[in-house]
Design brief:
The chain is of the alpha+beta class and about 180 residues long. It is built from four helices and nine strands. It has a seven-stranded mixed sheet, covered by helices on one side.
């Protein structure tokens, strides 16, 4: 499991657009949010529109969002690469949606859940790990916006108030 301040392990993964993406391609960004996600998880689906909105809001400020699906599509066919392409198109993802076919990236990062956020600063040091906010069920009842607060802190050059929270979601479906 990555710890606060750890360097982001680089990766190279195929996106639903057929392009190959490397984390190191984003070293010029002010922050990078790596989010382990999938298609089928009800927690992901509950948070999906919030993730999209955050990406659209923070991208002009120099933040890159990357979604990674590490689930085994044999156990969960809804998480197949073809279904990833459909989901990204259906939701209009404003960020790359990447396939961790070998599950090596999830293992290297220590990811366990979907959605699970790893936020890195411009030096690619881990500045926040955890969940998006404190209420996956109802966005109108959120009182703590962990990811937003961490993004604001990183962009301002400050330490986030919360460096780690417990990720809330489905477990990654391992092979």
């Amino acid at each position: 499991m990555l710890k606060y301040g750890d360097q982001a392990p680089d990766f190279q993964l195929k996106g639903v657009d057929g392009k190959i993406y490397k984390l190191s391609d984003y070293k010029n960004k002010k922050a990078v949010a790596v989010i382990f996600s999938c298609n089928h998880c009800p927690y992901v689906r509950a948070y999906e529109d919030r993730i999209i909105a955050l990406a659209r809001e923070y991208e002009p400020q120099g933040v890159q969002f990357l979604l990674i699906n590490s689930n085994d599509p044999v156990k969960f066919p809804e998480d197949s690469f073809d279904n990833m392409m459909k989901r990204a198109k259906e939701k209009g993802y404003p960020f790359p949606y990447l396939h961790d076919e070998t599950q090596q990236v999830a293992r290297t990062y220590g990811a366990q859940r979907t959605p699970e956020i790893f936020l890195f600063d411009s030096a690619m040091k881990l500045r926040y790990h955890g969940t998006i906010d404190d209420n996956y069920q109802d966005p109108n009842k959120v009182t703590k916006r962990y990811l937003r607060d961490a993004l604001d802190a990183v962009l301002a050059g400050r330490e986030p108030d919360f460096k780690e929270t417990q990720p809330v979601g489905c477990t990654i479906k391992w092979k």
